[in-house]
From TrEMBL:
<protein>
    <recommendedName>
        <fullName>DUF1697 domain-containing protein</fullName>
    </recommendedName>
</protein>
<dbReference type="Pfam" id="PF08002">
    <property type="entry name" value="DUF1697"/>
</dbReference>
<dbReference type="InterPro" id="IPR012545">
    <property type="entry name" value="DUF1697"/>
</dbReference>
């Protein structure tokens, strides 16, 4: 069995209310083992036979639509992939970790799309960005709340959806894995 993390976007925001107990139950009904929600809404640890994570992402997105009528992006990562998402983030340690995020993406954007994102955002704020493996590293410098670097802005330029977590939360999740 492999230990996985499912990171759900759009949970308990914008009217998409879902109790974590209900989400755990849905995982357990699908025969996933050692299901546990961690840190905050939309983070689920589980064990399952080793398989490509993109198939699991599709299954969970379907499960959310079918069972809860929620259209949600889901990023699934293994423990090693999560570790890399923290350790490879070039902004860790340079700023307050609550401002440093990893934005998990559904695909790997090409360099031209990333360059467009950086260029289009240049006059909008002080955020710093770096491209990772199926993720975008972001230092929000002055905080996320007032930032103009929103998920919608990112997704339009990169051509893929994502969901972000700060590295402080990711470190706590990694410790639980």
């Amino acid at each position: 069995m492999t230990r996985y993390l499912a990171l759900f976007g759009s949970i308990n925001v914008g009217g998409n209310r879902l109790k974590m107990a209900d989400l755990r139950y849905a995982f357990e009904r699908e025969a996933f083992e050692n299901v546990e929600t961690v840190v905050a809404s939309g983070n689920v640890l589980f064990d399952f036979d080793e398989r490509p994570t993109d198939g699991l992402e599709e299954l969970f997105a379907y499960m959310m639509r079918d069972r809860f009528d929620i259209d949600s992006f889901v990023a699934v990562r293994t423990k090693d992939e999560l570790r890399s998402a923290v350790e490879d983030n070039p902004f860790v340690g340079g700023s307050d970790d609550k401002f440093v995020h990893t934005h998990f993406l559904e695909c790997q954007p090409d360099r031209a799309r990333f360059d467009k994102l950086v260029s289009d955002h240049q006059e909008r704020g002080d955020e710093k960005m770096a491209l990772g493996e199926r993720c975008l590293y972001i230092d929000y410098v002055n905080g996320v709340g007032d930032s103009k670097l929103t998920s919608a802005f990112i997704e339009r330029r990169l051509g893929c959806r994502g969901t972000a977590r700060n590295v402080r939360s990711l470190a706590r999740i990694l410790a639980k894995m």
